[in-house]
Description:
- This protein has 15 helices and 10 strands.
- Strand 2 (about 35-40), helix 2 (about 50-60) and strand 3 form a beta-alpha-beta unit.
- By secondary structure, the protein is α/β, with parallel strands linked by helices.
- It has one domain (about 5-130, about 165-335): Spore Coat Polysaccharide Biosynthesis Protein SpsA, Chain A.
Amino acid sequence: MMAPLTFVTVVFEAEIPLLELQARSMSRYLDPSSVDRILILDNCVLGLSGHSRRRLLREYGALQRRVRFARTTELIDPGATGGWRSQQAAKLAIARRVETPHYVVLDAKNHFTRATRAAEFVDATGRAFGRSHPYTSHPLRGSLVGTLTYLGADSSQIERAVSAFPPTATPFVFDTDTVRALMDDIERRSGLVFAEEFERRKLLEFFLYAGWVETRGPGLPVLRNNLPIPSPTVWPKAASVDGIRAAVAEHRRDDAAVFAVHRQVLAAADPVTRDRIAEAWTTFGLFPDAASAGSFIRRFRRRYLPAIVWTRGIERLRRTLGHGKRAPRLTSPERRSETSAT
């Protein structure tokens, strides 16, 4: 019998509705015997409100007793990193709280679309699934080369990695003990806490993990089965009817268990494109009808811009005051909307 997995998701203010959708999809499609814990990394500036936590727990249904919340500031010193980079560092730092051999990192934009078991992510020998692709002309090639150079890779290792290396997309499966060993090694070599060195070197979490496994660990073939975890994603550059159709066709072709729609797509898409998204979500069984899915998208759009503006404003204020200092007490758009609704 496959060992259960821990599922980890990072969320910030603008993506709370998407996390609700993910929770609904997990309740509907994720086999309970494959789930040990669901860990929500709360990267909201003031933390998820009680109202938001209760809404989320309701969406998790029978899985809600396995859900745990952790503030990213509990995992990483807020003076070491912040914002988007704190989300990245937290995906690794959470390994010190994971009790299963593997954990699966999701973004809030991911949602399940059919019955799913642990065997979709880890094979019977304990190797994680995960494909590789070329970075020859990829915009993140420089970051990959920089990370490998930091880890002491030689020219042949870098050349092989540029030709084929794991992606920086979710779902991504981590070997828990390996992540702990990685962080211990970096802290020992740098003399700094992990998050501080992560920020100082401008590292990326997935490149760092795969690069460390390849250069200082047992090697990627030992830990990763080079079979993909299909997860078609609608990215901002494909925020169109054609983009939705292409992603849905890919989903059907690969019999994918996971789909994703980037938050910027929902924010920027025209009405016809939003209707195609609503239709897709209805087909996946996440809403009873397209009208309900459309209502969800409208709610997301009403909250999106205020959440982005407010979050960025508070982050700028904190940078002005200095990392680690508390910003003045303010009320987030999330809490204001709760107040007006009661």
